[in-house]
Amino acid sequence: DIQMTQSPSTLSASVGDRVTITCRASQSLNTWLAWYQQKPGKAPKLLIYEASSLDSGVPSRFSGSGYGTDFTLTINSLQPDDSATYFCHQYSGNSWVFGQGTKVEIK
Amino acid sequence: QVQLVQSGAEGEKPGASVKVSCKASGYTFTDCYIHWVRQAPGQGLEWMGWISTKRGGTKYAQNFQGRVTMTRDTSTSTAYLEINSLTSDDMAIYYCARQFSGSYYLDYWGQGTLVTVSS
Predict the structure, then answer these.
(1) Fewer beta carbons below 10 Å: N end or C end of chain A?
(2) Which of A34, A50, A98 sits opposite B47 (nearest CB)?
(3) Sequence-ordered list of residues with C-beta below 8 angstroms from that of B34, at least 6 positions apart, any chain
């Protein structure tokens, strides 16, 4: 099975900062990677699909990149509403795996 | 609009079974797979498996094979997750989510169902 390593596990940044979260897969995923945002007590929400496509209604300060084994979620100009936990999620060979999550805190 | 509405919280004893439902609306039910994902308290997301709403075929994650059954009722656009032989490790929020056929991501999620296991 493919293993996903997401980092960092937590980060603290100020409003307006640029934030980067990475996910590394143990095998190539092509672009079958998605990113989700989860706030406390809520279901996850899709942000990015196919590594770099922004889901409808998601603010343009969110972006995704990567191919193969290394993927990145970037939040440009961090906002207070971005305080949440972010998960990467991969599909490969009929198996789906989530990253461990990154908790983003606002300083 | 697309909605996945799950059944309410459940409290069960160890060794019992629980069945959670996920009712879909706002789209053609058989156009999408339904996945189940669980989240233990304070933990991350764990993929459990999917069911093809069109044909009823299933794929379970290795950790859940033999103890979990996913079914669907196309007449009511509802998917079900049944977990047998509950232990305290099964105490979690269970989410259903849809995958549109041909895509490889989960674009709509249910609100979650809390399952507690206690004697």
Answers:
(1) C
(2) A98
(3) B22, B24, B50, B51, B53, B70, B72, B79, B96, B97, B98, B99
